[in-house]
Amino acid sequence: MIQADGALVAIRTTRARGYPAGAALAPDRAYPERPFPGEPISPENHVYGLVRAALRDAGADAEHDGTARWNPLGRWIRRGDRVFVLPNFVMHRRPRESARDFSGKCTHASVVRAVLDYAVVAAGDPSLVTFGNAPIQGCDFDRVAADTGAASVGEAYRRLTGAGVGPVDLRAVSSRVTAYGALKEVRRRDTEGAYDVDLGLGSLLEPLAVSGAGRAEFRVGDYAPEATMRFHGPGRHLYVVSRRVLDADVIISVPKLKTHQKVGLTCALKGTVGAIARKECLAHHRRGAPERGGDEFPRDSAARDLVSRMLDRTAGPDTRLRANVLRVASKVAARALRVGPGGIWGGSWFGNDTAWRMALDIARILRFWRAGALGSTPARHHLVVVDGIVAGEGDGPLRPSGRPAGVVAFAADPCAADVVCARLMAFDPWRIPLVRESFAPGSLPLTGADPSRVSALLDGAPIGLDALPAVAPPPFEEPKGWRGRLIDASAGRRAAASR
């Protein structure tokens, strides 16, 4: 049985507000514990040392600190364990996207490389460690692997060990889409690479599925409604999760610190969707406005309803010309309705009561599912190393503005990690259902930690949570649909006074 870890989050900061250039991702110093002592060091890779320092601050294997025997992840990873490292590779860099904005969207490989090395030290064999992600359907995986440096890390590992650690594309379905939204190609992979996990009545979506006069109309953008509805209904909530992730003994999430239009914040908990092989099972919102039993947008109107139905009709795998003409027209109409401060669409607002439930469902699967069933005790550890060197603010997760924050963080508890990340942004975590409800008790609790006991270290010294907004001021820009809802102004004032 896996015991609950303390809710401590170790944060390290740097004045460097960017990542090492090119493929220079080896350790920045000849650390005595490094797994490949013959590899030339990369002095410019300051990120490696930050990750290492965060692990040291957490007190991991203090007995052997400074020696070749130091094994900071050995407390959670036993020799011979299989480890899956889950970064955030949401989407490749778009043509007009700045390098900084892209860096605020996807996990950089310099963070991943350090995590991989210490996972190998603990597991004892590079062949037991893998990294990868399931980005959105239209992401070009080869491009995002190159853009983030992940491909270079994979190549370095093949050169050093002969092991193919990744990066691995976890998607069962991917597509090629034009800049205007036309669907050019759909590619399908062998679905035997995933497990079907049905949470049934235990799903957090179940109260929505059985409420109201009719059946809830769960939706996820760019997928046919009937495809999503096959996965969700009264008593049935099915998620298709990568075997590579669920066959692991330990999962290490390496999320990007950024905002999210649908759930407020995306970090460790929301990042678990990267383990899903079939994205159509991800219920992101319910069709329509609240008065119709939905949370797609705050207020109903004839125009919104019409465009919503157009999007439903044109979603799906049809690549023919007529389907694409209608698809592009419906997307243009939706974009027009999004213009302006009141243009909320696709569940991208604080009233979305669906997406956070879906994300916590997946986080519970990753914690409790083993050998074909959900157990009553945790099946594996889920560790977190947060990439906040360049963070994302505003309209994340797909189009955030890059925000140089200069932080990395380590936690052995995803829920505690998200509390601290919210505070770093100057957000009130208890106004974010995703974070608040992650501490709810139940038959499949996500944490054994008391939320009042979540604590943080900043560069090795204790720091109160109310002081964290002063680490990377000013407050992060909220997503459009959450403006005025997340920033804890009183905490920001207290943090400023304490500095």
Percent range for β-strand residues: 15-25%
Number of strands: 20
**Helix fraction by DSSP (H/I, runs of at least 4):** 25-40%
Radius of gyration: 22 Å
Structural class based on helices, strands and sheet pairing: alpha/beta
Largest sheet: 11 strands, mixed
| CA distance, first residue to last residue | 43 Å
Shape: globular
Number of helices: 14
Low-confidence spans: pLDDT under 50, at least 5 residues? 1-5, 495-499
Instruction: Work out the count of structural domains.
Output: 1
Mean of all residue-level pLDDT scores:
91
Topology:
Elements: E1 8-13, H1 46-57, E2 83-87, H2 99-103, H3 109-123, E3 129-133, H4 141-148, H5 150-161, E4 168-169, E5 173-177, E6 183-188, E7 194-198, H6 206-209, E8 218-219, H7 225-229, E9 232-233, E10 236-242, H8 243-246, E11 250-254, E12 256-260, E13 264-266, E14 285-286, H9 302-314, H10 321-338, H11 355-368, E15 369-370, E16 373-374, E17 381-395, E18 399-411, H12 414-424, H13 433-436, E19 455-458, E20 461-463, H14 489-498
Parallel strand pairs: 1-19, 2-3, 2-11, 3-4, 11-17, 12-17
Antiparallel strand pairs: 1-18, 5-6, 7-10, 8-14, 9-10, 12-13, 15-16, 17-18, 19-20
Helix pairs in contact: 1-3, 3-5, 9-10
